[in-house]
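We emphasize that the prediction below concerns an isolated chain of 246 residues; any contacts that depend on oligomerization or on bound cofactors are therefore not represented. The input was used exactly as deposited, without trimming of termini.
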Amino acid sequence: MSEHKELLVILSSFVAGLVNAIAGGGTLLTFPTLVFAGLDPISANVTNTVALWLGPLFGALGFRKHLERSYLKKLVVPSLLGGLVGAVLLILTPQKTFELIVPFLILFASIILALKSKITKLVERYRLPYPIVFVAVFLSAVYGGYFGAGLGILMLASLSLLGIVNIHAANAIKNLLGFLINLVASVYFAFSGKVYWHYVFVMMGTFALGGYIGALLAQKMDKKKVEAFIILWGFFLSVIFFLRLV
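Result of the prediction step, given as a token string:
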């Protein structure tokens, strides 16, 4: 790994951890950085997941005083199962197929981020029974294990269906569940032969640090500008990856 690439990866992982805790979508920074550093898309996605698995945990620690543990007992199982299913599906996806899917995944993540407030308002109208919430969390976790960008928004929407309307409490649970999803996916990926461990070790600490600092900043700042930047960046990236297919 060249010095310039290493510096770029370190910077992107720190900023991604920061952004993830504040607004979500940090994967849209680190994933393309790894691709442009020379990794194939599946290896970049796998390496990214393994590198960032600690980030949400530090984000949850930043919100720890708002954590409502009574909800966790209901949400841990679908999160772990979904994360594992998503990870298995990713490894089973042929490289060429994933390259075709990537622009759509990035575009989907960007749209989810752009429609975040509308999605939240929509689901806040309903408080659904636990089996439906279980399925919603499970499907969100499958997506998280498979790709992950925009996972936080899907998780927040799922938590709203359960009646969790306090944003800090929701962020605390979202981050902790995101940690569990990344953890189970990372354990599976560790044996896949697709992890570039030197990138993992470079990114892991800075991503976790960014996640913790971001969680503290999220409670004190307006995150609309951060969200707007990530949304525009996501749409830009989707165009770039579409052009790579031409």
